[in-house]
Amino acid sequence: MRAPGALFSGIDFARHRTVLAAVSGGGDSLALLFLLHEHLRTIASGPSLLAVTVDHGLRAGSAGEAREVGRLAAAHGIAHRVLNWEGGKPASGLSAAAREARLALLARAAREAGAGLVFTGHTADDQAETLAMRLARGGGRGAAGIAPATLVDGGVWFLRPLLGTRRATLRAFLRERGISWMEDPSNHDPRFERARIRAALDETAIGELLAAARTAAEARERLGLEAAGLIEAAAERAAPGLLRVPLEALAGSEAGLYAFRILLAVVGGAEHLPDLNRAAALLGRAGEQGFRATLSGAAVTARRGDVYFHRERRNLPASPAADGTLWDGRYRIAVRESLPEGTLAAFGAENARTAELPATDAPRGLVRAALAAEPALHAGGPLVGLAASLPQVSIEPVPGPWARLLPSFDLAPAGAVAALLGAREIPPSPWEGHKRAMG
């Protein structure tokens, strides 16, 4: 196995006072904890380490296992904290809900600790198993596998430095140090898909899957760089909520289709890119006279050689104007001071019809349509004003499908979208390789 210094040498720890390690008590996460602990001890004035265990409360004895992790961490001088998944648990989709709860709890713990980095113990075996499951569902963009780093909620990086290390190697590391680990019985329970996949994979299949993931990841990053360059060169904000790109910049290339899908998701507030085939069919029709269509919550219109994107008026949310609200997947709301009690909802077509429009050469009908879908504060029905114009509110655009989770594969296009929208700059990846790619 690579030495701790080699596993973590590409990570910039200099700007961090504290880092978190997610530790379940299993062999992978315990190996991560002690490898990271050993490495941080070699860094002069390096960050402190906090081990965090999430107790999902799904198995008898899970609380005792979490305490045992705490005792082991304390014996090695490592701070430890237990986070509990509280509240009701869903009757279906439990595994997905548990993963989301774990992610949210770890991100919150990182923010509370003033930490921008959370380390997790995903291994090469996890990568192979994940890819096998995704390929069984069709693959697509997921064929790139697990990203080595993911930015969560625009502020906390989750890092996976063991994706190139096999599970057996990590257990050998623990045995050499006399450290025992716990086995989750669900890892071998055939009722779970991952357990079935794990039992079916042999060494040859694992090697082939890991090679396929690397190839797909490189291709996804290359395409992202091309699409980012296209967005930076050709896309513009024509008015609030209205984006414009020359049709010739989008047509006829894989990168153009990718940029088209990205912009649809961005203005539609969608969590995922629209279906590849549906988007390709739509783009293929964009040169038709009077073209207008909708997909993924976005309305797309072609006028005089340009393609315009704005949010369609269906399914726009209405919610309390609370601090931290992610409104319609497009804007993050920050409340600076008290607001009139009311609801954050769309500006509306009637208000847009009589509003003063910004100076722009874009078609006025499209400017009004885009304005109608922008967030506004409504107090008991009457309009208070557009959220962007209220002094008590800060409204920050977010980079569309990457508002919640930004895999490192997609740093380049997400950065281009953030610049296009005037969003906050994406925190740089702590991995040196990703910084070079972005540069």
Give structural attributes.
alpha+beta, 40% helix, five-stranded antiparallel sheet, globular, seven-stranded mixed sheet, 439 residues, disordered C terminus, Rossmann fold
What oligomerization state is this entry in? single chain
Mind telling me the CATH class of the largest domain?
Alpha Beta
Number of helices: 15
Q: How would you sum up the global shape? A: globular
Would you identify the regions where 5 or more consecutive residues have pLDDT less than 50? 434-439
Using the CA coordinates, give the radius of gyration.
24 Å
Mean pLDDT: 92
> What percent of the residues sit in helical stretches (DSSP H or I)?
40-55%
Helical/strand content category: alpha+beta
Per-chain topology:
Layout (H helix, E strand, L loop, with lengths): L3 H5 L9 E5 L4 H14 L7 E8 L6 H14 L3 E6 L9 H19 L4 E3 L4 H13 L12 E4 L3 E4 L7 H10 L16 H8 L2 H32 L1 E4 L2 E5 H4 L3 H15 L7 H10 L6 E4 L2 E6 L2 E6 L7 E2 L5 E2 L3 E5 L7 E4 L2 H6 L9 H9 L2 E4 L4 E4 L6 E5 L7 E3 L3 H11 L10 H7 L1
Parallel strand pairs: 1-2, 1-4, 2-3, 4-6
Antiparallel strand pairs: 5-6, 5-19, 7-8, 8-11, 9-10, 10-11, 12-15, 13-14, 14-18, 15-16, 16-17
Helix pairs in contact: 2-6, 5-7, 5-8, 8-10, 8-14, 10-11
What does this structure look like?
The protein has 439 residues and is an alpha+beta fold. It has helices spanning 4-8, 27-40, 62-75, 94-112, 124-136, 167-176, 193-200, 203-234, 247-250, 254-268, 276-285, 349-354, 364-372, 411-421, 432-438, and strands at 18-22, 48-55, 79-84, 117-119, 149-152, 156-159, 236-239, 242-246, 292-295, 298-303, 306-311, 319-320, 326-327, 331-335, 343-346, 375-378, 383-386, 393-397, 405-407. The protein has a seven-stranded mixed beta sheet with strand order 3-2-1-4-6-5-19, with helices on both faces. The longest helix has 32 residues, at 203-234. The two termini are 31 Å apart. The model is unreliable at 434-439 (pLDDT under 50).
